[in-house]
Amino acid sequence: MDPDRPADNPPALATTARGGAAARNGLLLVLAGPSGVGKTSIAHALLRRFSGVFSVSATTRAAGPGEREGVDYTFVDRGTFQRWIDEDRFLETALVYGRDYYGTLREPVDRALADGKLVILDIDVQGAAEVRRRMPGMLGVFILPPSDEELLRRLRSRARESEEQIARRFAQAHQETARARQGGIFDALIVNTTLDGAIAEVAGLIAARMGTPA
Description:
By secondary structure, this protein is an alpha/beta fold. It is 40% helix and 19% strand.
């Protein structure tokens, strides 16, 4: 789960057998990368191209203006979230900024994959590592900026945060990238030099795994 992803998701998600992420041409794509690298734009393009679905995360935070239950997030209290952890319902969970819990529920993912869908999870590196342990057949892709300078430019161009917040995101980007490069989590690291080029690269990986045209 990536709480920075805008909550304008298409309807929720899915797999099959408990041990794998691809069946009947269904595929679980775990997409990660620093804030500002273009993950959301890439994900939406892939959803349209492959008629895929986004995972709808569960969270303990309150709903924001215009957010819809079961579409943007599944909103639950902390007691329910903890019970779901105890019942092993999540593929991954995270405590964000020390305040709110987020997590990817497994059952909707399993359902969508069983229907042959492309399911996209937009989550951080820690979450991707958790999903890899639980679903080793996933396709993991980490998106990189062309350079540090370009990442800073993109973060500032969003005009949503202070310089202090941007500096924190920039430092976090370096940490996530270092871990992603260690191996074992992602199948590919793709540089988003141009949006169309990055989309085409990820689409080619998906098509090869799903046996469909890119």
